[in-house]
Amino acid sequence: MQNQGSLGPTTVAELLQTMQQERATGTLSLASNGSQCSLHFLFGHLFHAVGGTAEGEPAVIDALSWRDGEYSFNPRAKLPPEETINSSTEDLLALWRNGSTAAAAEVTVTVAAQATPVAGGANSVAAAADDDDWLSTPASGEIAAELEEPLDIPAFQTPTPPARERAFVAPRPAVASTSTPRPTGPAPTNWPTSQRPAAPPAPERTRSAASPRSDAPPSEGGGGAKPVAGATRTQLSLLIPMPTGSSLHSGLKASFLNFPMLLRTLTQDGFSGYVSIAGEKDSRNVGHILFREGSIVQAQQRSAGSYRRHKAALQEIVKGVGAGEGLIDAIELPADLVESIGSLVVANTMFLQLPSRIVDFDALVEFVEEQPLSGGILVSSGREEVSVVLLTDGRAKGSYSSATPELTDGPGVAAAACADRESRIDVVAAPPGPLPAIEVAEIA
Questions:
Q1: How many angstroms separate the CA atoms of 113 and 147, rounded?
Q2: H-type helices in 139-276, by residue range?
Q3: Does the first or last residue of the chain, that is N or C, have fewer Cβ atoms within 10 Å of its Cβ?
């Protein structure tokens, strides 16, 4: 759609439909015969309108009848916090068309009633003097009785729109944690370099070079040491990169955006993908909110050297955007891909910080596929670059990295990152079951 033009060749109804189809965000300004109307859109949803003394749906209905004038669209306009429209574009157009039909019917019936001859009227008598059928005209009393009966004419009324669900996400059943419980009692002086969770005895087998050791002797003074096997994903403190997808919008300024309305709109749309928030002052400050079919299932955020995930990350993101900080992108992804990426944020580690120079990466992938494992392989380097291999039931779903975000088949992208001798490899296992939704209402 052109950012400006004339009404007449293009109707207001066509403009509204185009805005919805293009999922546009911004303000559409209309002017006709001295009247003004501003329509505000977020991802194609018309959520607020102001025209003269009217606002909301009445302002839209009035503007839809304009036949000439000018329009202009500003995609960078600051969106207002008000939300005065609950109806969809289709509902508004149907309401306007029904109102126009009712108004036309009322005018037709009124004209017909005024043209009905009434006995005793000089004009009626003169008009009917030459009409042989005039003698069959009902008596004046009968006409009066008919006129006293109300006419069944549909009147234009604005129906009360159905109440919309205001909760951002629907509650989902909690997923039982599969993290290994911490041992009770006094902490050991040191942890072994690796330790598997308790499992039924299995036949002894030769340990590969990539396998974690369980018989390493303890070292002295392990006050700050962490267990390797069963360690939670937060101990890695890696920001999981996001792959590319279909862009709904990019570069939205947080200071111009009603962020709660954005979350609500994506929820109502059943959106699958992620919202990315990058700092304007420091591009290293990054946050991601993952949506699966309209539900927020995961969030992560990094700023000032700190890494947060889940509700803590979402709280920090909302706080930063509320202060007007950040550039916002909305990217669509398949729902199953969102599930795989979100699982990495809460996964448990199998292998932690393996040096790439001593690991046969192909053999590691083969070993993981034999498990079978759902989760991923993360390769991090000193350049703060992270490469990801997504694993589903032991199969490499694809790989990508923060430098090359296009998802490609197989583990090749991460394998190439292992050429850096300083790279470190983490293998993480996702917990079973779908990711539970985050209740945004709980985020203060």
A1: 9
A2: 140-148, 259-268
A3: C
